[in-house]
């Protein structure tokens, strides 16, 4: 669980955590959702007192018929759990947690292995370095434009806001939002 000091300034679970999953789902689906529905609860009294939630289920529907479900929680007893499964006509693609090391032991009654990396700095060190390199390449003129556009960032933020609205109203929210 992140510190309460951080959670107070995090922007809430939808804008702090869900945006990453929403971004990935839109990228995998290669389209924008046309509606979202969110349900959530606060298991931790301190988080509830902040007006936030810590356990969330989001359903996104897409014009093509793709249906995506995102589950997230600020609480995991075995570090952050990040997995994705994509089911399609020809099978399933699954990407699991990356363990801190790949050593496993097998016995007659059990199998043991390392826990996933604790948090984002450990899990995504290589990706963060690549992002920084790309940013420097854009600033130096080696690359014409950023890989991620302002419109993509704004879309994910709008979807996170729609999730908040859905949670408040307990109703699906149509996208794009009317401002």
Task: Write a brief caption for the model.
The chain is α+β, with helices and mostly antiparallel strands and 179 residues long.
Task: Describe the protein in words.
The protein starts with a helix and ends in a 5-residue tail after the last strand. Helix 2 packs across helix 6. The strands form three sheets. The chain has a four-stranded antiparallel beta sheet with strand order 3-2-1-8. A hairpin with a 4-residue loop joins strand 6 and strand 7. With 179 residues, the protein is of the alpha+beta class. The protein is built from six helices and eight strands, in the order ααβαββββββαααβ.
Uncertain stretches of 5 or more adjacent residues: none
The main pleated sheet reads as: 4 strands, antiparallel
Approximate strand percentage: 15-25%
Total strand segments: 8
Helix content: 25-40%
CA-based gyration radius: 18 Å
Shape: globular
Keywords:
alpha+beta, four-stranded antiparallel beta sheet, 22% strand, 179 residues, two-stranded antiparallel ribbon
Write the layout of secondary structure elements.
Layout: H1 4-9, H2 13-29, E1 35-41, H3 45-49, E2 55-61, E3 67-73, E4 84-88, E5 91-95, E6 104-106, E7 111-113, H4 120-123, H5 125-140, H6 150-169, E8 173-174
